[in-house]
Amino acid sequence: MDTNESVIIMSAVRYMLGRSSYGVGSVCDYLRDNQSRLTESNKSVIVLDVQEYLDKNPETAYKSDWLKIIELLNKNI
Description:
Shape: globular
Number of helices: 4
Oligomer: single chain
Helix content: over 70%
Number of strands: 0
């Protein structure tokens, strides 16, 4: 994965945290489908960002989707 794609993915994750939009599902689908292409650093930062957000916002929309991403990426770090 090149640097530009990595930046775009990280930005998309951060942008979608807390959103109540179909875009959350699209980002989560992308992460699931491309998990093998993510670097260990990407995975670690995504897990950290999502977990930190959920800790501060426990009632957020799409929480279950984000928790599945944390679980998936934690298995592959």
